[in-house]
């Protein structure tokens, strides 16, 4: 296991997994920053392996393991495995909101009722989906602890996420244009980009895009999906491509969406303020523009498989399960086959 460099100058970390069964490679990129990141990841992996080989540590943890102990071990293991983006956000939530109040409670004393009640009380304004996400992340951590032998049982073993009622899309093209008209320039460009491409409007896709992702000659943009770990190519309409060319001329940033020539981590707040200015309901969120993109294409008869690829979904089945209600044409044809009752 070590930090290595390919002939093209790209640094990567190479090692075998904790069981010594499979090779694992993580590419970090080029340059001094990439080399430093590779060294840090390599150190994390080596530290974790030392812990797993230390029977004294494992034995002491099995006797009494507190939530902060388990969270620390889990963090090192997952970072060593290369988890990023959403995991870093979850760690911030753990450090700021959860561990300060639950850190010194032995895991064996935690119950499902305690944890569910805590999440609901600590995040009263969060949606049912967010509550479910946080409990799912905790459940994943406890499962990991059981598998590694740090804890005997998962306090959330029998907890299941509630089925979230399907949200009815109320956002219209008129609404999108109204919001864009009063939004700050960088937010307006973000809104327009999501409406034209359907990219996920957060740090994993929209805000990670650089001008180098634009394929100017092919009139397309290359997008990497963190969720599926796959690249996809999304065609761009000529008029939107012209808009991007003009924006690039004015930009001094590598990133397409930037504020004062620096990358931004979110545009949700400025989007919400713009919505309020034009009296768009509070339940409308930035992600609804992605839903609008998908629903519009499907309602116009674009094949599900094509839309699924553009959206970066794991499968066409996922697209169909979520958006079958907007595919009206097939239902009309089906009803037309019914015989008349006379």
From TrEMBL:
The keyword Repeat does not apply. Keywords: DNA recombination, DNA-binding. One of its GO terms (biological process) is DNA recombination. SUPFAM superfamilies: DNA breaking-rejoining enzymes. Pfam families: Phage_int_M, Phage_integrase. CDD domains: INT_Rci_Hp1_C (cd00796). Residues 166-337 form the Tyr recombinase domain. InterPro entries: DNA_brk_join_enz, Integrase-like_cat_sf, Integrase_catalytic, Integrase_recombinase_N, Phage_int_M, Tyrosine_recombinase_XerCD. GO terms for molecular function: DNA binding. It comes from the Bacteria. PROSITE patterns: TYR_RECOMBINASE. Belongs to the 'phage' integrase family. This is Site-specific integrase. It comes from Oceanidesulfovibrio marinus.
